[in-house]
Structure formats: C-alpha cells, structure tokens
Amino acid sequence: MLISNKYQRVLVLIDAQNLYHSAKNLYKARINFANLLKEIVKDRQLVRAIAYVVKSDEPGESLFFDALTNAGIEMRMKDLQVYPDGTKKADWDVGLAVDAIRYSNLMDVIVLATGDGDFIPLIEYLRQQGRNIVVANFGRTTSSKFKELADEFIDLDKTPGKFLMFSNKMRPSFRIRK
Predict the structure, then answer these.
(1) Which homologous superfamily is 31-165 in?
(2) At what angle do helices 120-128 and 93-103 cross, to 10 degrees?
(3) pTM to 2 decimal places
(4) Is a pLDDT exceeding 90 seen at residue 34?
(5) Where are the domains positioned within the chain?
(6) What percent of the chain has pLDDT over 70?
(7) With contact defined as beta carbons under 8 Å apart, do 155 and 130 qualify?
(8) Using CA atoms, how far apart are residues 88 and 50, in angstroms rounded to an integer?
(9) Is 139's pLDDT higher than 90?
C-alpha cells in the first residue's frame, strides 16, 4: 500500500474505453468519474487528469464527454477508425504511454485507470524512474501481473456502488454496501 501525503503530485491517466466496457459488461452501469477521481487522488495534489476517449457519434456520447469535463478531466480524443471490411479500432495505448513518460519527471504518483496488461512495460519503466504507480480498475478485468507491479491497486469491484451510475433501465445485480 502506497503511503500518500498532501505534497505528492499526481497525474491520473484514464483509459476510458477500458473502464467503460468493464463497467458495462460487469455491472450494466457507467463510471462515475467524479467519484473515481476523488477516490484515487485522495488528499494529494492533482496536477492533471486526462481521459483517452474515442469519438464514435453514438447517442449520449456528448453527455459522457460533459461528465468528464465537469469532473475536471481533460480529454484526448480521436475518431473511431472503421476499416473497409467493417472492423473497428479504437486504441489509445501509445498516446497514454507517451503522456505518462512525458509528464513523469514532474510527478510523484502516476495513476493508471485501466486493467490493460499491455501497459506492463510502461509500469516497469515508470517504476525504474522512481515513480509510484497506482492502478485503479475492476479487479476481475485487470491483468494479475499489472496488479502485482503497481505500488497500490484500487479494486473498484470492492465498492462498486461508489464508482458506478445506473440508468433507470439498469439496476445492479449485486447488493451495494455503504
């Protein structure tokens, strides 16, 4: 467990697609990004929070982008790529990794809100540079090696009601503990 203090400078990098799909598939819910940010920053100094999003012109997408902005989260946005054969690609891994490295010398703690094991080399590099790494994601959709490498793992599965929002059509299939 990472010991936090009010002097630590924190960078939060959010793999929005990864969190969105985990919340949707596990709980049929959406992420409450304001609560997520509050929980992972704690009493430390938030320097920057960036969400990596894909613009796909889906209904409700602007509400999602507004929620991020209202939570104080910057967005890096790119269009969904659709190939001639109909396959789609929405990948921000390189962009997120470049930003993590770009800003790492200015930070004490880097939070990766994702469970994507593709970021294992990034964590290894950042730790070699002396940065503390926090991973925040649903434990059931997070690479086990990813959890092991982090200085702290915040498992959103432990208190999902704190981080999720349900529409009127969707209700949790679990009991939310307060």
Answers:
(1) 5'-nuclease (3.40.50.1010)
(2) 10
(3) 0.89
(4) yes
(5) 31-165
(6) 93
(7) no
(8) 23
(9) yes
